[in-house]
């Protein structure tokens, strides 16, 4: 990793764990969403364990969306984004590094919290492992796709809601294959690897398309 | 936005852009910084680095300070030093200061470990200015550089700007205060006459 990228990564990580950062908020929101579901659904343990992977995935999607609107907006408001555009660094790579730092600060805690929350949803160890693994490879795709929405809404003061509306349709394939891979691990005859590999592919595609599209949107928003 | 606007600036010279509020001084600086795309016309830099656009030879010192309140003063400055690519050209050779030296020079060395959110407006401005000293770049685009600075820091800013010019750098600044720079040209912007729109380009 070239040194400017490391510098940017460290700064973004520091900012998200300091005061006003979004690192802890996401995981608390995830906790809130997942703990509320059993109260709503009722104490049917079989039902909970059947819909558990889906609940964890939807919780992760919502928690990811929660912090994304500040990804570029915070830098635009204080003039940092202008200077970043002039810094002589490839903008696509800059977006990728910022997404990576954002994922480490907000996505990775969700993955780490997932096994704990699996207990609330009566998931057995195999299902918990499967959901955690799918979240590990799938949540980067959510962040990278969300970066497109974050870049498009960067100049809007209350762009968070618009961002969610823009991003959720694009995130549906990730959700489908994430949940179906986790379900496949629980229900024996269905192969786990097929949807899991498609989920990996979705993340890799998002790692290319997300930064390219977000960089184009940021250049356009410069005016 | 602009009509019949043309100027050239030899190395070691400052261009002071003047004009009424809302005439487009900031827009001109933002265009030079590559933040607003040119609708027409060209911008050329001689003896620059070939694969970089002119904006990537420049520091933009605008109204916003690009300082993160949650990071310490040193973390803010070190980030910009590590992130911005330095540019030296045959005509411009300036040594980069270390972040500590730059902060000491600007009189905020004692705040180095404080979160930048604790700084006053003038101190934040000086921290933003320190960014120009830790990464050498030949062009300084300065929009109202003296805002929020007291008389003493204003004098120091002039010294720094003159030092930059002496090293062969260029400065384009929009300002309302008279800056005693060594080598100045003045570009006065005014609203276009309905009949014959024109620009004045007076050497000072």
Automatic annotation (TrEMBL), chain A:
Membrane-crossing residue ranges in chain numbering: 21-42, 54-72, 93-121, 133-154, 161-186, 192-218
UniProtKB keywords: Cell inner membrane, Cell membrane, Cytochrome c-type biogenesis, Membrane, Transmembrane, Transmembrane helix, Transport
GO biological process terms, semicolon-separated: cytochrome c biosynthetic process; cytochrome complex assembly
Entry keyword RNA-binding: no
InterPro entries (UniProt xref): Cyt_c_biogenesis_CcmB (IPR003544), Cyt_c_CcmB_bac (IPR026031)
Pfam families the UniProt entry points to: CcmB
One of the record's GO molecular function terms: heme transmembrane transporter activity
UniProt subcellular location: Cell inner membrane
Membrane topology annotation: Multi-pass membrane protein
Signal peptide: none
GO cellular component, one term: plasma membrane
Key word Signal present: no
Family: Belongs to the CcmB/CycW/HelB family.
PANTHER family for the chain: CYTOCHROME C BIOGENESIS B-RELATED, HEME EXPORTER PROTEIN B
Function, as annotated: Required for the export of heme to the periplasm for the biogenesis of c-type cytochromes.
Protein name: Heme exporter protein B
Species of the source: Roseibium aggregatum (strain ATCC 25650 / DSM 13394 / JCM 20685 / NBRC 16684 / NCIMB 2208 / IAM 12614 / B1)
TrEMBL record, chain B:
One of the GO biological process terms: cytochrome complex assembly
Keyword Transport: yes
Positions of transmembrane segments: none
Single GO term (MF): ATP binding
Record-annotated ABC transporter domain positions: 1-203
PROSITE patterns for this protein: ABC_TRANSPORTER_2
NCBIfam families: ccmA
Name by which UniProt lists this protein: Cytochrome c biogenesis protein cycv, atp-binding protein
Source organism (scientific name): Roseibium aggregatum (strain ATCC 25650 / DSM 13394 / JCM 20685 / NBRC 16684 / NCIMB 2208 / IAM 12614 / B1) (Stappia aggregata)
């Amino acid at each position: 990793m070239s040194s400017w990228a490391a510098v940017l990564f460290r700064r973004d990580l520091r900012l998200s764990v300091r005061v006003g950062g979004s690192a802890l908020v996401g995981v608390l929101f995830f906790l809130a969403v997942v703990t509320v579901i059993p109260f709503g659904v009722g104490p049917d343990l079989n039902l909970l364990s059947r819909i558990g992977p889906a609940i964890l995935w939807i919780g992760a999607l919502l928690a990811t969306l929660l912090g994304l609107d500040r990804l570029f907006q915070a830098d635009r408001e204080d003039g940092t984004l202008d200077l970043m555009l002039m810094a002589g660094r490839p903008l696509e790579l800059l977006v990728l590094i910022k997404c990576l730092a954002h994922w480490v600060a907000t996505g990775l805690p969700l993955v780490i919290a997932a096994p704990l929350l699996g207990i609330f949803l009566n998931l057995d160890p195999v299902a918990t492992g499967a959901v955690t693994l799918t979240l590990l490879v799938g949540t980067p795709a959510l962040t990278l796709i969300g970066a497109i929405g974050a870049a498009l809404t960067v100049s809007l003061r209350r762009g968070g809601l618009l961002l969610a509306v823009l991003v959720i349709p694009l995130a549906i394939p990730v959700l489908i294959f994430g949940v179906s891979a986790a379900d496949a691990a629980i229900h024996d005859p269905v192969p786990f690897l097929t949807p899991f590999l498609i989920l990996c592919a979705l993340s890799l595609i998002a790692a290319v398309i997300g930064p390219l599209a977000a960089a184009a949107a940021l250049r356009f928003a410069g005016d | 936005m602009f009509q019949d606007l043309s100027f050239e600036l030899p190395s070691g010279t400052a261009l002071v852009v003047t004009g009424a509020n809302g005439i487009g001084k900031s827009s001109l600086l933002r265009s030079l910084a590559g933040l607003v795309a040119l609708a027409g016309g060209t911008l050329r830099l001689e003896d620059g680095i070939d694969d970089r656009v002119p904006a990537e030879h420049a520091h933009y010192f605008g109204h916003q300070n690009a300082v993160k309140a949650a990071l310490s003063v040193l973390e803010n400055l070190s980030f910009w030093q590590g992130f911005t690519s330095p540019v030296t050209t045959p005509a411009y050779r300036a040594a980069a200061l270390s972040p500590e030296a730059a902060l000491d020079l600007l009189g905020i060395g004692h705040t180095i470990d404080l979160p930048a959110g604790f700084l006053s407006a003038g101190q934040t401005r000086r921290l933003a200015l320190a960014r120009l000293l830790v990464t050498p770049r030949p062009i300084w685009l300065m929009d109202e550089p003296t805002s929020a600075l007291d008389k003493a820091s204003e004098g120091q800013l002039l010294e720094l700007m003159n030092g930059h010019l002496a090293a062969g750098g260029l400065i384009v600044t929009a300002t309302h205060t008279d800056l005693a720079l060594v080598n100045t040209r003045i570009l006065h912007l005014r609203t276009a006459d309905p009949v014959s729109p024109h620009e004045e380009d007076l050497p000072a």
